[in-house]
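ok trying this again, last paste got cut off
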Amino acid sequence: MQVNSGISGGNLVKKETNIDKELDRFDQRLEEMGVRIKDANQLKVREDVFDEVTLLALYKLVHKKWLSVIGGSISTGKEANVFYGERDGAAIAIKIYRIRTANFTTMSSYIIGDRRFSHVKKAKKELIFAWTKKEFSNLVRARDAGIAVPEPLVWDRNILVMSFIGEGEIPYPQLRNVELEDPAETYAEITSIIDTLYKRAELVHADLSEFNILYGDKPYLIDMGQSVTRDHPRALPFLMRDIRNINRFFKSRCDVRTDVEMFNAVTGLNEPEE
């Protein structure tokens, strides 16, 4: 039985040609701005990422000498794309929040209640700009507390430029993809990071898991846009969720503390064991 897809061979070729033209157009726009494109076939510029607002922000960053090369994709998340880049020969990561397709509802739940961004309008574009600034601010606080995170360099509108965490042009793997030599030691390192983040940086990651930790010579926290301050109305539930995620990942690899025991140690509270 032959299934009719509704797209003829000629129409499919025409559609692919139009997409190629769009990609070429955005590549040309970037090059006109003075950005050298590295590995153009891997970059795969998409209109939902490099819209007019993003191109304007990128233009400003280029002319302020924050980046000179943009390369292939490092990761594609629910809200943002991360690209490899270079600044005067040094590797950087360029995180671009997608204005057209980012989840407005999810972002709102982390912004509302954060006193640092109480003035932010609820329009989608302004919310995403605030989210980018929020991640930059959270990375600064975590770094200043001595936590291993990407070094925040600069942000503009929906673009965040950070140091690159990896070797060569290859990012360190996510924790979930690492064969740990000493899981108990790594577990201790990560639980210490949770404690330091809460007590010294006064933050809760709020989305901590084996997906948001890179592992090279040590664990590195990433994706801190949703992180909240300790006085956020949902800080404690977010903290418990982070702890449960880490315990879930490690419990088959080494001995772990109970969720409540760790929660009490971090917060200084005295919640009863469930």
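PB: full thing came through this time. Helices lie at 9-32, 40-43, 52-63, 104-111, 124-144, 183-199, 235-250, 259-267.
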